[in-house]
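Data deposition worksheet. Section B asks for the primary sequence of the deposited chain exactly as it was used as input, without tags or linkers unless they were present during the calculation. Section C holds the resulting structure in C-alpha cell form. Section D is free text for depositor observations; keep each observation to a single sentence. Incomplete worksheets are returned to the depositor.
Section A, Depositor: J.P.
Section B:
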Amino acid sequence: MDTPASTAGNVVIVSVDTRRTAYIGAYGNDWIQTPDLDRFTQQSVRFTHAHSECLPTIATRRTLHSDRRAFPFIDYHPMPPG
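Section C:
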C-alpha cells in the first residue's frame, strides 16, 4: 500500500478483560459508572455482536496475537516453540 504516513489510518484494538457489556455504561448500564470507557467509546467503533471463540481470556488473547484458532479443529497445527 502506497499511502503516505500522514494520511494512513491506525487501528488499535482495545480488549476489556472479563467484562460483559451489561456492566458498561456505553452499552446501556445506568447503575455502574464507567465514565472513561463511555467517553472512549463515543469516539470509537463499538461491536455489539462480537463473541470470543473461547471463554478463558488467556486463550482469547492468544488467538488475537497469533491469528490461530484456540482449539484443535480441522486445520489445527501446533505453534512452534518460542
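Section D:
The chain is about 20% helix and 0% strand.
The chain has two domains: 1-49, 51-82.
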